[in-house]
Specification:
Elements: H1 2-9, H2 11-58, H3 72-77, H4 81-112, H5 118-126, H6 133-143, H7 152-164, E1 181-183, E2 189-191, E3 200-205, H8 221-225, E4 232-239, E5 263-268, E6 271-277, E7 283-287, E8 295-298, H9 318-343, H10 347-355, H11 360-388, H12 392-397, H13 403-406, H14 409-417, H15 424-453
Parallel strand pairs: 3-4
Antiparallel strand pairs: 1-2, 2-8, 4-7, 5-6, 5-8
Helix pairs in contact: 2-15, 4-9, 4-11, 5-9, 9-11, 10-11, 11-15, 14-15
Length: 454
């Protein structure tokens, strides 16, 4: 009773005591929160803040790190052709990859809504995200191999090509020197001696293995001994090689096979006046030729090497090829994020548009895309940030000879610093440049996220 009366008589000390108690409680809460956050802050400082500050400082020193050079590394960075190519390739990545991924993700997210097994389809497309970039790079390095026997893409390309345009059966065939055939600049072979109607000519070739002959090949001797009439020009194209040795060079022996499906031309005054294709025994004939001298020619198409596909990892296509591998990995990510935004769209708006007579394309273009604009922006900017840091795919997929043609800022930074350049000063400058390019996109994404939260 006495204490209560004292408190009523002196309220100020009591209020001060309450404030001190609350202040101590807040201080204890701050200390507790700091104790929980401190390990994360230490890791953040050790793994992010310290490396960033050290790289910035290191970028102002020479390769050895002993001499201060100021901004020379930054100036050298933009004088180096390899760095300029890396900047150009990075710009291509930033423009092409996020745009394609966002577009593909949007289209697939809209289409998946109409698929019965939508969950399984999403899982199938999202599965590449579980594959490391290193493993994906190895897979695509094999897929892009130029040898059709190894690279699945070139195997498909060669199959389609050969279905429409048959390949030469004799890419290794050639004529022996001094046996009546001379090679032209275009890879063709022509007779050194002129022939006329009524003649029978033998065109002997070597360099073809007997087991590589077409299965319908027949002995050429009967055709070679057949006499031509006065108004025709006959001949035979044969393999001038006898198994087990023996035989005479430049003459058709009894055991030598003809070369079927060879194209033969009759040339006069530099112009082709007639053409024929050899039969199973290698024979051919021309009828109705005018009197005079002719040259028999085997066009270069007979000896063209087989089509081996596209050089996916050559200097011209290596960057698009690597971007294709990147699309395979990240399309599922874009589709899932955009699909989540699509699921949150007000369905009554879409149904109202359908009731007003809008078709699906109009709904997609005028309603779905505008309503999804915030989600599309977040996906696009996130992919831009990720693309700027791409390293694994470029380093693994691009072969050594074209590494410089495919290089981006991240790989160039590594190559300059540790991949043989051993210039950590210039490499640090490249790292700072990459940081300056990434930070604005990160800030934009964070602000966009905060606005959407509010």
């Amino acid at each position: 009773m006495t204490t209560t009366l004292i408190e009523k008589a002196n309220p100020a000390p009591v209020a001060q005591a309450d404030q001190d108690r609350k202040r101590r409680a807040r201080r204890r809460a701050r200390v507790g929160a700091l104790a929980f956050v401190l390990p994360a802050l230490l890791l953040l400082g050790a793994l992010v803040v310290y490396p960033v500050l050290f790289s910035i400082g290191r970028s102002f020193f020479d390769a050895s790190g002993d001499r201060f050079v100021g901004g020379d590394n930054y100036a050298e960075m933009f004088r180096d052709p390899a760095t300029l190519k890396a900047v150009r390739n990075t710009a291509i990545w930033v423009v092409v990859a996020p745009t394609l991924l966002t577009g593909l993700g949007l289209v697939l997210a809209v289409l998946v809504e109409k698929v019965r097994w939508a969950t399984a389809f999403k899982l199938l497309l999202f599965m590449p995200m579980a594959v490391s970039f290193l493993a994906a790079g190895i897979v695509f390095r094999l897929a892009y191999d130029e040898d059709p026997e190894k690279g699945v893409l070139n195997a498909a390309v060669v199959s389609v090509h050969d279905a429409f345009k048959s390949a030469s059966s004799y890419p290794t065939a050639r004529a022996r020197e001094g046996q009546g055939l001379t090679k032209g600049a275009d890879g063709s072979y022509g007779t050194t001696a002129a022939v006329s109607p009524g003649d029978t000519v033998g065109l002997g070739l070597v360099g073809v293995r007997a087991e590589d002959l077409p299965p319908d090949a027949r002995p050429a001797y009967p055709a070679a001994t057949r006499k031509a009439s006065a108004d025709e020009l006959r001949g035979v194209v044969y393999l001038d090689f006898t198994r087990g040795g023996g035989g005479r060079q430049g003459e058709v022996d009894r055991d030598e096979n003809g070369l079927p499906q060879m194209s033969v031309e009759a040339v006069r005054d530099g112009k082709t006046v007639a053409s024929a294709t050899t039969a199973a025994d290698g024979s051919f004939r021309f009828q109705g030729l005018d009197e005079g001298s002719y040259t028999m020619r085997l066009p270069g198409s007979n000896f063209a090497p087989p089509y081996e596909g596209i050089s996916w990892l050559g200097p011209a296509l290596v960057t698009p090829a690597i971007i294709g591998a990147y699309l395979w990995i990240w399309t599922g990510f874009a589709m899932v994020l955009i699909g989540a935004g699509l699921a949150a769209l007000p369905r009554d708006t879409l149904e109202a548009a359908r009731m007003d007579g809008a078709n699906e394309w109009q709904i997609f273009r005028r309603i779905t895309v505008p309503l999804l604009a915030p989600v599309l922006t977040v996906v696009f900017v996130t992919l831009v940030i990720n693309v700027m840091k791409v390293f694994d795919l470029v380093y693994v997929i691009a072969p050594g000879p074209v590494q410089e043609d495919a290089t981006v800022l991240a790989t160039q930074m590594w190559l300059v610093s540790f991949g043989g350049g051993n210039n950590q000063g210039l490499g640090s400058a490249l790292g700072v440049l990459l940081l300056l390019l990434v930070v604005p996109a990160m800030v934009f994404n964070v602000r966009r996220f905060r606005r959407s939260q509010r």
